[in-house]
Amino acid sequence: MSTPTHDPHSGDRPARGTASENPGTSPTNPPGPATGPTPAPPGTDPTNPSPASARGSAGAAHANTAAADMDEPPTGGSFARYFLRKLGGAATSMVLVIVLGFFAFRMLPGDPVLKIAKERPMSPAQIAELRSQYGLDKPVIVQFWDYLVGIVTGDLGESYVYRKSVSALIGEYLGPTLLLTATAAVIAIVLGLWLGQISAWRRNSLFDKLASSTSLIFWSVPTFWLGLILLMIFGGTLQWLPTGGMITPGLDPWSFAGIIDVVKHLILPVVSLVAVVYAQFLMIMRASLLEEMSEDYLTTARAKGLTEDEVRRRHAVPNALLPTVTVVFLHLGGLIAGAVTVEAVFSWPGLGKLTFEAIRGPDLPLLQGTFVVFSAIIIVMNLAADIVYRFLDPRVRRA
Amino acid sequence: MTSHSMRRGWQRCLAGVAALALAGSMATSPAQAATSEAPASENVLRIATDGFIDSFNPFTSFYLVPTNTFRYMYENLVANDAEDGSVTEGLATEWNTDSEGKVWTYTIRPDMKWSDGEPLTADDVAWTYNQMMEKEEMAVANGSLVENFDKVEAPDEGTVRITLKKPQANNPGQEIPVVPEHVWSKVDKPGEFKNDEKSVGSGPFQLESYEANKSIILKANPNFWRGKPKLDEIQYRYYTNSDAQVQAIRSGEVDFITGLTPDQFTALEGADNVELNDGNGRRFNGISINPGVADAEGKEFGTGHEALKDKKVRQAIRAGIDAETLRKQVMQDYAQPATSFIPAVYPNWALKSDNSVISGFDVDRAKRLLDDAGWKEGSDGIREKDGEKLQLRFLTDADIPTEQSTAKFLKPWMKDIGIDLKNESTDADTESERTTKGDYDMYFSGWSINPDPDYQLSINTCGQRPDAEGNGGTSQDGWCNKEFDKLYQAQHVELDQAKRQDLVQKALAIHYEEAPSVTLWYPNQLEAYRSDRFDNFTKQPTDGGAIANQVGYWGYTSVEPVSGEEATSGGMGAGGWIGIAAAVIVVLGGGGWLLSRRKKSDDRE
């Protein structure tokens, strides 16, 4: 059971100097029980054979035969069949998540109404009134039915605390989270891939050692700790940057001053988020490029008289990008969930903060809603990774 | 691999670093750097908060932040003064009761106005109270306060008459926000009304706007009957964690924070322009002991240890605890010594420390008490009776450091007197579930207490005990004592203040002697404000009390901006430059990278 305060990247760490055995296939656990579809080794989890899981550090494409065999029945599967199979897997995961989302939070100890009523002069009549307002006086099976009907009709119920529909709340808070995670994702991916390819190309140089070890140090640091240290130095002591929030109250976010203000508020959370995740991209890129560097076609390319730079850029890197892209997709979902910690440190008004608040409640409908949405994002990302991979790598298509 | 391309990589890195350093060097020294641009007016008090808000509807919201905000938005019929929380004039200038305390008549101050300029009369008061008495959805937050009301009338514009079902000594006009009838009667579903912009009220400040998890803005009310506050605006800003709040007060982004831990408080001692307030609070912390919880019919439930039903064992536990050492070590002296569950900030009611019933830390006495109770020391030093060992479970919240340290101190102390104490640290939810089910021996408890002791006394009476499912009761310790109940009833209707105080002393003395709980200390509320911007905060109690979370609106209403303050430059501070620099780096970096790609494609080395 992981909670949002759980460090988002403690699930999988790359072994030093090699790509992780299972690069990034356990996406960050969404808050709540770890049901993010964590692909098992190929062949054991038909619902989600992740191509990435088949590539260890020795995972050149031919290591993917197991997965390929499973995805491609001997009769020769069409793309449609492959797609449907993956879609079925994703749908199964989603159904499990929906069922779990309801029962897991109901199994939590404590009674939301009693917790709210704690230390307040409340009469039994008031407590009963609250129970019926929240629909907690109905039998669990009826509550579950209401919840299922709600999900199908896109109604995730009403939050206890905010007294607003959960769907509306999630829509409202998604924007800031996307701004934060998208910015961090772009920077982390660009930085990680760029440093990774240089590191691989100059294996064991000073640059390689510095870049790899620095990224691994940041990777090992707890996000909230790094965030607080940055906050203390740049916010409290130097007073260069704001200590929290997304925009100074009273500013119009679309004015020039407002945009600058948002950028200022973005810097520290983005730096914290990037620092702890870019290592995964660096390591994956480095490992896959090292794979390619021993390939014969590079010798051929050099023989054609291409410069080292050209050999790297035109031949080695595109091939090395194959496994990398998959991992990037898998991590995007995780990044959104990883925002929970960073948002809690920097008071960023996004989905992570909303989840954090929901747990403090406990605001059951809101917890269910954020849980289902986070899980859905990760499942969709997994599916996208599978599909993109098939397009990228002709070997999977048995061309 | 060529040294050339390697150099280029490094050059780009260096360029980035240089740009950042340049941005840094543009920054003026922190002392003058305005982090955020100066507030629109010098007269805005910015407070850090992290509270739940469901709405600003005083009929339905029971969370801490809205409740504290209502105290600034709406005047009550009678207020609790700053000095010691005694009842003082609010909307009413005077009040009297019939001989038994069943009919209360209030005289309303003439010529008062709501913040929108409409007249405020007795009709508004009667309308508000009747809403709560007639409609369930309007009684969600404060229903318990009107439970004893039979009828409320306004015979004329200047008089309110409350007729109670049963007599009571506690003034029934406290703590109920009175709302304007001309606004609320037009609201379609008042139980669902959010009331979160441009509120109309009678208190010193009115809600201007609210953005969830971002800010709450209150503006001064020019029609406040005590006169317009000196502040123009109060701005609550959301900070998710208290460490960020500490940094925000250091950097001057907020002017007031509260609820600091002793460590954070100590860390701020050297900070420039930050004034600290170590305010006596209205909470108590203690150890609740399972006296053999039973439901209102007397049927026992739960898993409490048999030994604890004997009050001698409970008294021995108290005698074995060195509360003074705990207060100094665990609370680092940021707490007041305690007697019973009414804190020292209410000197009229708190159990006097010279009461004959009070006994301190005394290991020998503790051992004697246990011997008397028949628990004899075994070979391993742990006491036994009928072959059963005296092993007790102590439930604590793993997230609260003070509870964990308390448990560490307690274990050896209890071993000294022959009790084997096991600390079971868990999460707050599990703790609350287990304590309502009676599945505990001892747990670390705490309550906030209002100026009138009636409610807290009432939840120590037999009738407040829950049933086995944990429904229906909010008993403080699951304790029941007929003597105590008699005294509770007597003070509940005693209109003579001196006699009532005496009855309350007697009731608290019984609770102390029976020891269903051991009160350890009254924690102080640790606060800090920017003394370079504001002063003249009012504390409650005025002598050594706290500024935030008062029972009333004294804290911020008297605040004045520090005169002769240098206006902070309206220009951009360092942060602004860093923001611009960051944007420039991104643009330049992107452009440079594109350029380098073009150049490299026809690169020949």
State the gist of this model.
Helix content of chain A is 64%, strand content 0%. By secondary structure, chain A is mainly α. In chain A, helix 2 packs antiparallel against helix 13, helix 6 packs antiparallel against helix 7 and helix 11 packs parallel to helix 12.
Description:
The complex is a heterodimer of chains A (399) and B (605). Chain A has 399 residues and is an all-alpha fold. Chain A contains 13 helices and no strands. Chain B has 605 residues and is an alpha+beta fold. In chain B, strands 13, 14, 15, 16, 20, 21, 22 and 23 form an eight-stranded mixed beta sheet that branches. A four-stranded mixed beta sheet of chain B has the order 1-12-11-10, covered by helices on one side. Chain B has a four-stranded antiparallel beta sheet with strand order 4-5-9-8, with helices on one face. In chain B, helix 1 runs antiparallel to helix 17 (574-601), helix 8 runs antiparallel to helix 10 (363-372) and helix 14 packs antiparallel against helix 15. The interface between A and B is large, with 73 and 82 residues.
Salient structural properties:
heterodimer; A: 399 residues; mainly alpha; B: 605 residues; alpha+beta; eight-stranded mixed β-sheet; four-stranded mixed β-sheet; 25 strands; 31% helix; 21% strand; disordered N terminus; disordered C terminus
Give the SSE map.
The complex is a heterodimer of chains A (399) and B (605).
Chain A: H1 65-71, H2 79-106, H3 112-117, H4 124-133, H5 140-152, H6 166-201, H7 206-220, H8 223-237, H9 256-293, H10 296-303, H11 308-346, H12 351-360, H13 364-392
Helix pairs in contact in A: 2-13, 6-7, 6-9, 6-11, 7-9, 8-9, 8-11, 9-11, 10-11, 11-12, 11-13, 12-13
Chain B: H1 3-26, E1 44-49, H2 64-73, E2 78-80, E3 87-89, E4 92-97, E5 103-108, E6 112-113, E7 119-120, H3 122-134, H4 143-146, E8 149-156, E9 159-164, H5 181-184, E10 205-211, E11 215-220, E12 233-238, H6 242-251, E13 256-258, H7 262-267, E14 274-280, E15 283-289, H8 311-319, H9 323-329, E16 335-337, H10 363-372, E17 376-377, E18 383-385, E19 388-389, E20 391-397, H11 401-416, E21 420-426, H12 428-436, E22 442-448, H13 454-458, H14 482-493, H15 497-514, E23 517-530, E24 534-535, H16 554-557, E25 560-561, H17 574-601
